Automatic annotation (TrEMBL):
This is DUF4369 domain-containing protein.
Length: 207
């Protein structure tokens, strides 16, 4: 009886899908399935957003400029409206380079979280590990370092609506893309964390 109860507990904890896709149907992963994030992929565009970052009660507001500077590299600069730089970070493949960052954001938990958020935001492609679907979404799962990124593509137009970053048992944060233009630009982007007090909102100023 004891072994049976342990087995049931093990299955209940590790055998269930994360809540992100628990009501979705799982299907075969085919070769043509590809994770693609088009929103910051054009080297000809300077993506300029009004940015508001709230972290543990501290608010930072200003202008965020995001630029794809080579086929594999993005640069992101966040400044105040008076021109002071909050941070200047480059992302290339799975690495990053911090050119500058203010002391208030240069704390391990905050910095690591920002790097994870923005790395995922600009990551253009990824390998598909699993696929799920329902009437509204086609969901492609990418797995990395014991965590997963779930990419939600709207069934109506196949536009990427959101990305959910989750552990095996719960969601960690979600990136939501709103008001998508015909040339694949998200006019509003929200990043909401579930377990720490960090929110990011970006509103397009120009392209």
């Amino acid at each position: 009886m004891r072994c049976f109860l342990i087995s049931v507990l093990f299955v209940s904890i590790f055998g269930c899908k994360v809540t992100t896709v628990e009501n979705f149907t799982k299907s075969e992963v085919k070769a043509e399935y590809k994770v693609q994030n088009p929103y910051f992929s054009n080297q000809e565009i300077d993506y300029v957003y009004k940015a508001d970052i709230t972290v543990y009660g501290n608010e930072f507001s200003g202008i965020l400029i995001l630029k794809k500077i080579t086929p594999q590299k993005h640069r992101m600069v966040f400044t105040s409206q008076f021109g002071s730089t909050f941070f200047d970070i480059e992302f290339e493949k799975e690495t990053h380079k911090i050119n500058s960052i203010i002391e208030q954001l240069d704390r391990k938990i905050i910095l690591n979280t920002l790097i994870r958020d923005f790395s995922l935001l600009v990551k253009e492609t990824a390998i598909v590990a699993e696929r799920y679907y329902n009437d509204q979404y086609n969901v492609l799962e990418n797995q990395k370092d014991k965590r997963s990124n779930y990419y939600f593509y709207n069934q109506l137009d196949q536009k990427l609506d959101r990305i959910v970053h989750a552990s095996k048992r719960k969601e960690k944060f979600i990136i939501i893309f709103n008001d998508i233009s015909g040339d694949q630009i998200a006019k509003n982007i929200q990043i909401d964390h579930k377990n720490i007090k960090l929110t990011i909102e970006l509103n397009l100023l120009k392209k």
